[in-house]
Amino acid sequence: MSEQLPERLAQRRQELKQRQMRQRRMALASCAFLVAAVGLAYFLVAGQGDQADTTVTSAQQASSDKGSGASSPPAAGAQPDSSWKPSTAPVPILMYHVIGEPAGAVPYPDLYLSVADLRDQVDWLEENSYTPVTLVQVQEAWYDGGKLPPKPVVLSFDDGYLGQYLYAMPILRKKGWAGQLNLKAKGSDLSSKQVKKMIAAGWEIASHTITHPDLTVISADQVETELVDSKRMLERDLGVEIVNFCYPAGEYNADVAAAVEAAGYRGATTVEAGLARREGPFELKRLRINLGDGAMELAALLEA
């Protein structure tokens, strides 16, 4: 019996080894199945997650565009119809600055206009058959045989404040209108992307220099830089031709006006009160809009 013990032990070890190998193979098979199942589940969930992310992103984008007035391709400003006729008559140019309420004490509160007052003014213009056009459209009628609506008006906005993009552009676009943005080449509140959306909505961009200096007290070389380089910078950045100019703070003299013309501009707006006339392309007068001016104040201004 002692001679058979080694043989039985060897046989037991062999059986145990075979059993362990079968268990190991079964465990490996189960593990492989589990890995495959987990991978499939992850793929399905990830795909749904990507779809959800896309949906959320689209919804957020739509909401953002709606808030900025860019939910659909914008109207490109007022366009000629059968009521538009050739005209060389004077045109009123309204002058706006900050659209929104002043937050506390501000240096120049009269430069502000509430969104409600702007909306009331725009509604009054529509009710009284005015049509906002760009200064370029006025010049095309004055000098190139173009046409204007029966009661044209230019809505000009100086400096490049954020409210001009957030509030003025959507208010005008609802009526198919556009304005003129007198933009500093540096230091405005508006990004290039925002300004390009305004351009797509039909707005004209005019130069307001680079740094907004008083052009009457700086050197001739500095004046040339402010005029020429601001035009070049805006054209390069925005991809549009800059045709018109706006004097910073309305400060200009005969030398400055001559420099503006020499820099390649077609016209320039001032802060002098009155109507813009074709006979003075570099001395275009405007009508200032001040804080608290509503529809009735605008009516009195235009009727005067």
Q: If you had to describe this structure to a student in words, what would you say it looks like?
A:
- The structure is a single chain.
- Helix content is 48%, strand content 15%.
- Helix 2 (115-127) runs parallel beside helix 4 (162-173) and helix 2 crosses helix 8.
- The chain has helices at residues 5-68, 115-127, 135-144, 162-173, 192-200, 220-238, 254-262, 295-303, and strands at residues 85-86, 93-96, 98-99, 112-113, 131-133, 147-148, 152-159, 180-183, 204-207, 244-246, 267-273, 284-288.
- It is built from 8 helices and 12 strands.
- The relative contact order is 0.12.
- The protein is of the alpha/beta class.
- The protein folds into 2 domains: 1-68; 72-303, Glycoside hydrolase/deacetylase (TIM Barrel), CATH 3.20.20.370.
- Strand 8 (180-183), helix 5 (192-200) and strand 9 (204-207) form a beta-alpha-beta unit.
- The strands form 3 sheets. Strands 2, 5, 7, 8, 9, 10, 11 and 12 form an 8-stranded parallel beta sheet that branches. It has a two-stranded antiparallel sheet with strand order 1-6.
- The chain starts with a helix and ends with a helix.
